[in-house]
Design brief:
heterodimer; A: alpha/beta; 5-stranded parallel β-sheet; 3-stranded antiparallel β-sheet; 11 strands; about 30% strand; globular; B: mainly beta; 7 strands; about 10% helix
Chain lengths: ~230, ~90
Amino acid sequence: MIDVLPETATARILRLSAAGWPGSLPGQHVDVRLTAEDGYQAVRSYSLGRAGTGDTIELGVVEVPDGEVSPYLVQDIASGDALEVLGPLGGYFVWRVDDPSPVQLIAGGSGIVPLRAMLRARLDAATSQPFRLLVSVKSAEDAIYRDELETIEPDGGVEVTWAYTRAAPDGWPGRVGRLTAETLDAAVLPVADDPAIFVCGPTRFVEFVADLLVARGHAPGRIKTERFGGA
Amino acid sequence: MRAHVEHVDGNALAGILAELMSTDASTLHITCRHCGRHGDMAEVAVERDEAGSIVRCKGCERTLLVILRDAGGGIRLRFEGTAEISAG
């Protein structure tokens, strides 16, 4: 563990030094295994917030109340501690920089983490695919990577739209509440563009969004999803 | 029609099964024996705890696979309602 960065009241960005790390693709994750003194083991999957080569990996972790793993990673772990990490994992929920398709990213809460890796890869590669990101969060204070996402200039072909489910920042012109079909329609690239779509978030959020996208005419095979429980 | 059938043994499976099993599992495709639903492994429903994972069909909710981690560190894969797993 190199760095532990508090990101919101309940989330942290963990930076780890992983010797021999082979590098990862945007969207991949790792399994983190914790072993208690009595030998009890718990494994959880965490998305990598940044793709690419190098020995440093970055995880975004949100504390799940009563969780077995996340409270330790958010509250207790400190610089210098070691973690058992297996990865990089997953070849499905992955964006490839040489895919020329326009890309629509849709995040619910901490589902932003793998999508941020995709967005960063697109910005770093300075390629020309149009990218749109819709982020649904409870409030601005709950938004991981918010400071970074707010500095993205829309003229670079990358557009970020926010949706707030509990509380919006002062002066927010839009509505506040659960993500609606209208908000999705306004934020998502049209069916005619045939975008590659990545949806990540709690299971119910992902099912709601994916069903709506299919109902709008997006091909199911173009919608890739990653769910992290909370069903 | 096959021109030639080789009669060999399981050692001959090492190559083709290594090819299948070294494929990233989330990119495999799986078919349910009960309802016939065919889809991406990444899209099935999984219930995971410290003992292992139960993999369920999103069409009929029946169990496709059970993956268990033994106390000794071994891993067991049980084919319950899986008709087929394919790669590529």
